Amino acid sequence: MIRCVLRIFSSPLRRCLLTNKVLPRDMMVRFELTRPPPLSSDPVVIGSSSVRAKQQPAHKLLLKPSRILHTRFDPAVAGQGGQTTGKGLWVTCWAEAVEALAKKGSYKRLHPSATMPAPALVSAQIESQLARRVVQEIDLLAERIKSWPVASRGGPISSWEDVPVRLVSRENMHAGGLGRLEPGVRIIAALDLAPSESSSPSGFLCDFVQPALPDEAGKVTSDEASAIPVYRLSRFFRTALLPPESLRSFHMLALLGRRFQREGEGATEATAAGSADATGGIATTGQGDMILLVAPQNPRTEAEKTRAEVVIPLAVALRRLGLWTGEEWTGAPGAEQRNFPQ
C-alpha cells in the first residue's frame, strides 16, 4: 500500500478553489467549462434578431467534471462529450465539495455566464465516473496480466505465485489462509465481493482476519493488516451508473486468479471453477470471496518491478473512490484541508 500512497502523493500539486490549499492531483477532482454539443432540437438562428440570439445556446457554458475516466474510455477524448474551453478548476475529492462549489458560485471566476447543473446530479456523475474508473482499471489489469509472456520468454511470471491477483474466501482468511502467502509478498488492497445485503463493512484487513504474530514468517502481522484497505465494491457502487457489463470485469479478474491458482495447486478446485458458465464466470466467486492485490515486498528485478507496478493504477482508483465517499479521509494526510468555508 505504501507504493500506492507514494504514487498519489507524487502526483502534481493543484490548488483547491474552495479551501485555497494545495494537494496532490490524485486527491482532487477537476471541473472544466464545456460547450454542450448542439442538439437537433436547437433553434437555428437566421439574421441578427436579439430575440433569436437569446435562444441560441452556442455560448452556454457548463461546469462539468473531467479527467476522471481512463483516456481509453473517456468520451471527451473521443470528441463525444462536448467542446471544452480548456478553462477549469480543482476541488478536493470529496462529495461535499460539490454542494460547497454550487453554493459559493466560485466557479463563475472562470466565466460570468458559466452555469452548474444541480449538485445532486453532479455528485452522482462524479461517483459514477470514479466507480467506472475502477471497473476500467480492472479490465486493463486483467488484459495486462493475460498478455504477459511466460518467464521462459522474458515475461514476469514464472509460477502462479507471481500473479498479482489472489482469490480467497472469507472463511479461508479467518482460518489463517493468508499464511499461505509466500515470504516477500505484501497485500496492496482487498476487494470484497460480498453482496449489498451482507452486513460486512468496508474497512481494513485487520477487521476481517486474525493477524499473525510478528515472528510468524510469511504471514500478515497486526500492523500490516491495519494498513491494508478492504473495499466493499457493492457499497461503493450503490448509486453508481455503471454499464450493464461492468460486474463481469470482477468475474473476469477472479476467473483469472483462479486459473493460475488451479495451475499451481492442481485440480482441487477445478470443479468449482469449471462449473462457471461462459457468460461471466459467476460460479467462480462466492458471496464471501475477496480478491487480493499483491506485489513483491522489495522488488529488485525487472520482473518484480513489473508485478509491483501493474496493480498500482487500480489501487489508486479505489483510493480515489474512497476519498470521494469520505472513507479514505479518516486519518489521511490533508484531512484537515477538506473542510470548506461556508
The major beta sheet can be summarized as:
5 strands, mixed
Helical fraction equals 25-40%
Integer count of domains = 2
Protein structure class = alpha+beta
Query: What is the count of DSSP helices, taking H or I runs of 4+ residues?
Result: 11
What is the global morphology?
elongated
Q: What is the end-to-end distance?
A: 35 Å
Strand count: 11
Low-confidence stretches: 44-57, 207-215, 263-285
**Proportion in β-strands:** 15-25%
Word description of this protein:
The protein is an alpha+beta fold and 342 residues long. It folds into two domains: 10-130, no CATH class; 148-310, no CATH class. It is built from eleven helices and eleven strands. The strands form three sheets. A five-stranded mixed sheet has the order 7-11-8-10-9. A four-stranded mixed sheet has the order 5-3-4-6. A hairpin with a 6-residue loop joins strand 1 and strand 2. The protein starts with a helix and ends in a 17-residue tail after the last helix.
